[in-house]
Amino acid sequence: MDWKRSLNKGCALLLIVVMTLSLFTFNMPTISAVEDELVELKILHTNDIHARINEFGKMAAYIKAEREAASHSLYLDAGDIFSGNPVVDLQYGLPMVALLNEVGLQAMAIGNHEFDYGQEETVKRMEQADFPWLSANMFVGEDTLVDFPQPEPYHLFELEGLTVGVVALTETPPSTAPINVTGITFEDPIETAKNYQHLEEETDILIALTHVGYSVDRQLAEEVDFFDLIIGGHSHTTLNQPAVVNGTPIVQAGGNGENIGNVTVFFNPASREVEAVEGFLQNVSALTSVDPEVQAMVDQYNAEMEELLSEEIGYTETGLTRSGSNDTSLGNFWTDAMRHYTDADIALTNNGGIRANIGVGPLTVRDIYTIEPFANEIMTYEMTGAALKDVIQFSYERRQSIDLQTSGLHYTILTNNTGRYVDAELYLNGEPIEEDATYTVAVGDYIGAGGSGYDFQGTVLNALTGMMTDAMITYAKYLTANGHPINYDANERITIDVTEAPIEGEPVGSTDYGLSSVHNRNGDSGLGNLYTDAVRAETGADFAVLNGSSVSGNIPAGVITDSQIEFLDQYNNRVEVVKTNLDRLKDVILTQSNYHGGVDLQASGLHYQLIKEESQFVDVLLTLPDGTPLDQEKEYVVAYNDYMHGSSFYNLGTVMVEQEYPLVWKAVVDYIRAHEGPIDYQEGSRITIEQSEESQDYLTVAEAIANNQGIGTVQGYIVGTMTGNFDGPFVTTNIMLADSPDQRDMEQILPVQLPNNQIRSALNLVDHPDNLGKRIQITGDLDLYFSVPGLRSPTQYQFVEEAEEPELPLISIAEARAVSNGEQVKIIGTATTNSGNWGGAGFYLQDGTAGIYVYQTELDSEAGDQVVLTGSKNVFNGEVQLSNISELEVVGNDTIPDPLILTPNQLSTINEGMLVQVEGVTITDLKQVNEYGTFEFNATVNGETVLVRVDNRTGLIYDDFDFEVGDQVTITGISSVHRDTIQLKPRGVNDVVEFEEDQLESVVDASIKIDRNRIMIEDDSIERLAEGGTLTIDLKDLDWTHYRVELTTEQLVALVAKKASLDVIASDIQLNIPMINFAENTSFALVMEKITDIENSISSVYQLTIEDGNRIISSFEEEGITLSFAVDTKEVNNQGDLKIFYLNDNSDWQLVGGKYSLGYVTAITDHFSLFTVWNQNEEDLPHVEEEETNNDDDQESLTDDDSGGNQQVDEPEESEDISITQTLPRTATSTYNWLLLGFVLIMVGGAFILFRSNKSASKD
């Protein structure tokens, strides 16, 4: 166009000459303009709408109005109009194209998500569109799945004499399932663009319309200088004004239909040059005008899908989020659904396919299609363990972070100090994956067919097993039908561990305790504090804030290197500085905290507290670090990163501090270098979460209309339905609320959606016309409904004001451990450790039921303090803990509980968090594990081993440890678990002592106490008992007919741990009971009842029973119980004929066996029943049989609700029956067998006995 630019203005002296010249320059645009008058081209642009159609009425009105006011205008879109809204996605994009046709879109760059519905549907949408789909670097071959048209590379617009060229570029390769682009290739976008320089001569204004992302747009501007403007998409970057790179302006409007870009290009017809480009973003939510025709289309599309999408398929109390650096709660639900649907061993899905979070409340079909808008299908492979490990390695190395969510498979990524992959450990059902073994693996067809570079090596068992959405809907319904809420936790399946691989990079500093992002969502983290402090120091800003996903990883205790910091920052974000006000800062913090379901922004220079009501953050309180409130009127300088500045949901302002700042990671390295001494932080000191105790306020209808966003509870009168008729006929799908029952002004009325669930059933006016005029409170999403402020997706309602939340009751620690993760609990217990032994000010707390770790940073407590606290139950690194402590108080001092005496193998999740002791263990594998003195060793006895970890923060370090390998010691400490490894954690130097074997005795006489008929151990006799020893309970001084010997849970556990026996000795019977039989019990009671109405037996007759709560233990699988009956041998001719018998189900006395010695007949039995001694040659003994070892007869089930615990000591009454829940052998254990005994007595001929037996039976 040089000849145009070289026109001789001097020759235009006469108007007739100018007119004559214009006739000859016929190929020049005939713009009506006076010399030097600029022509303005108005361009409205959108990108990455992702099917968000609800605000299209506003968008249409604005775009049409702006174009009508302009002499020259275009409306362009930079791609990704599909995938993100089930109303559109379930109709394969048809509503989206129809709306864009109506709004008047003139050209679109093809984005990667335009292929998501498959080639057949993509072609249909291209044919449906009234606008061209453009892509210069997309080439259609002969092997496509359908007849796919070749898109045009560019389009020329003739606008009143102005020629505008639009060249389009597409992401390479597009992020969609590979099958969707079969037969289509994509060339390098920048190299492709260079081929269109000839358009510079053919156009007045040349525009690149791209779907390649902001970073590639910048490269394009650097390498190609003939575009007058780049309109971008794909990266969802919010550029509030054009970013100029190498003289080329770049614009982008964020994403999801939140903004409309408004650009004016000033063209000089005389110089044939673009002289200026100006632009801004119009926030759609701030618009008020609505195009009625377009909005009617939107409402119609929504109404058509409402019934399907509003179906409730479950309820989640925890919410399901994709946020997190390891496994996430939504990822765990998702993959469990895949595995349930396919019956595979393992299910995997990539993080990029999970597109949204699900909040606490009802789970609907809409939620499922929102989180998975791509119509992906599930395929199954048979893979070797080696191939599976290769996939896991690739998944981590592609971005040096976790990408694959998992079910069935648990895996640990092992890295060096920089986070670089070293190895991986894979487990299935707790067992290591074997390289040569094969496993069935379910994956989405996107990654299964090679998307994102994945390569699943193996045999395809089924290429299409069903839709991913169908799997999740089916699984949610399955859980709901079985009474289970859809509750999931994170960080339970995937971990990242730092190995002792050689350190990479130049040392720049150190940390004593390590810096991690693991607590990002609960408050400030060590890594978050480091990053934000560094950014603030670099810039001198008042504050620094960074989004949680940009602060991710772990720096272990020890040396910090520059390579380590560089590697942790995968995004290469650059520091940016803006001026902002508190209202905007609070809005970003609050909005993002609710979106992520926890803390998102890490901070420096300020402290903030999130106020939470139920599951929603409702306010944020900002102060300086010293607690001084911030000035509401002041403008503050805030440093953050360029990603946040370019994202509308993080952007803090348009006024930037113009200065070139470094990349974030470089600022962090500089800060560490300049820091004196180790860098460590007290986590939880800057950011906290406060659960509001106030009951939720309600909004009036007027307030809900004026502030129509977020979740709210609205109070108003039901005045009709949105048919516009206040008296009927009504519809079932909605109601209208007003502040007065007589309100008829539609602008003062709030429409309320009634989803297809119990709320519709209860509130709709068709079935309940009497609801008209009633006042209710209803909670839901405040959002546009019928194109006006409304309330959607209600979760609860009531016709009276809500009751106040009751105060949390005190519960036991065992009950607290059993609640769902995230649930608030209130407990009281005794601290068994000092605070801070394992970081922060955390400590272990214990009561009579269990123990638990308390993570907190506020209170310094000591072992023995009695503490009451309120917090939420969570799991961290596999260990149950309480965190987010909202109430914490020392209320007294108590004796530290005695430790449970266990063997190494008995440390488990059952006693996790409790104070325990292992005795006589030998130290092996002693080693220091960090430079600060933390050390570990194995403690072994009798072939059982447990790992002992001594943290240097307890005050005991490796160099001061008095013992060495081979020493025999007794260790006291906390039973703990760390990432599936059971650990014993001593509290300090006094917890590891030399083992003194003479402390323990092989036989110990227990001291007993008697409470009514209950006999209990009251001394430390079990502690003095050696392993394999015998504890004796002497009852010879008690001449009772009913004995009940009880053990506490701790006593039972200790006896089982010692593999001890219990000797119970009465005047006429002795029992030797191996306690290993009762390892699964939670309680233990031995009941011995003497039966006095059995005649002619050689010994006393006893019914023997062992109870575990309300359960009868009738058979003993480990070791038999020895019975010894005292016998009178005066009239016995042959003592060898004396044997022990039991009464079986047929009322026959059946032989157990036995041997006579020193006045006792002794035998071993593997079950309990009614026992006595008979002469085996006695003629009157009925039907003596050999004892059967296999018998399938069922024991009758008895029910009662009293254990007989209220009898007097001097003569206890007979105990009543106890419910039996276990099938017994052929025994007569239950008291119903007294009826059978009555028949035996009839055979003996005792009419008087028969009378008594029937009387006894009637009592039962």
What is the fold's blueprint, element by element?
Elements: H1 2-5, H2 15-24, E1 39-46, H3 56-68, E2 72-77, H4 86-89, H5 94-103, E3 107-109, H6 119-128, E4 133-134, E5 138-140, E6 154-159, E7 162-170, E8 184-186, H7 189-193, H8 199-202, E9 205-211, H9 214-223, E10 229-231, E11 243-245, E12 248-251, E13 259-268, E14 273-283, H10 292-309, E15 312-316, H11 329-342, E16 346-350, E17 361-364, H12 365-371, E18 377-384, H13 385-397, E19 404-407, E20 409-415, E21 421-428, E22 431-432, E23 438-444, H14 445-448, E24 459-467, H15 468-481, E25 494-498, E26 507-511, E27 515-516, H16 526-539, E28 543-546, E29 554-555, E30 558-561, H17 562-568, E31 575-580, H18 582-596, E32 602-604, E33 607-613, E34 616-623, E35 636-641, H19 642-645, H20 664-674, E36 687-691, H21 701-706, E37 711-720, E38 734-738, E39 750-753, H22 758-763, E40 775-785, E41 788-798, H23 813-818, E42 824-831, E43 843-846, E44 851-854, E45 865-876, E46 879-893, E47 900-901, E48 915-928, E49 935-941, E50 944-950, E51 968-978, E52 981-985, E53 992-994, E54 1001-1005, E55 1008-1011, E56 1014-1017, E57 1025-1034, ...
Helix pairs in contact: 3-10, 5-10, 11-15, 16-20, 17-20, 25-26
Labels describing this entry:
6 domains, seven-stranded mixed sheet, disordered C terminus, Purple Acid Phosphatase, chain A, domain 2, 5'-nucleotidase,  domain 2, nine-stranded mixed sheet, alpha+beta, 1260 residues, 69 strands, disordered N terminus
